[in-house]
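Consider the following input, taken from an annotated entry for Cupin type-1 domain-containing protein (Solanum chilense).
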Amino acid sequence: MANPRRTTFSSSGNQNHHQLPISTAPFQNQGTQISSLMNSLKSFLKKPHAFPFLLSLFLFLTWVSLRFQHPSTSNPQREEWHAKVQSGSDQNANLVRFSASSSSIAKDKRGWLINPISLALDSAISGGAAVCASVHLGEIRSGGLRGNHRHHTCNETFVIWGAKTVFRVENDAVKEGYAEVIIGADEVAVAVSPLGTAHALVNVDPVRSTYFMGCQDSVINYNGSTTDFSVWKDL
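Applying the prediction step yields:
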């Protein structure tokens, strides 16, 4: 039987392959647009009305930087407490407050100046420090807390200003066992905490920092047993 003829096909290695051209037009257009934008920006910055724009941009970036550097120390539980707090009697809280324009505060174009001991005595607040054997200055940022402790060996007088602030002090004559008042951001307050009574300062201002000065009539060893800490669990 005859073998069927096989037909073979040979592939030629000399076939021409056509390559599609790669267009660089989009990249060229992008480069042209960026160059045009940069030239427009340079031209704008050379004009006088660019200064307010740059100043606004600088202030915005400064604000963002400060927000990241000083994050709020508030927490949801404390924010809920902030909403419920009610201001009580200044007398029960051993506190007297003054507006920035009060005649009881020495003031001039530089600001205000007070003597906390004399002011407390003149305001008939008893139980404060008669002398300042120990003095400390401090800041409380928005949502922050200081104090919440009880000294057994010293009387203390405070000056509080700068932000909306809650001052709490133990007082057995009050139903809750403590008196609590809110100091306004535009007020200066002088408060006292006699020895053996707990006190706390809480900044409830959304933006400003509270500033305070504490004057104690004896030096406290905070590592000793003469101070009780974390007196109130709701703070």
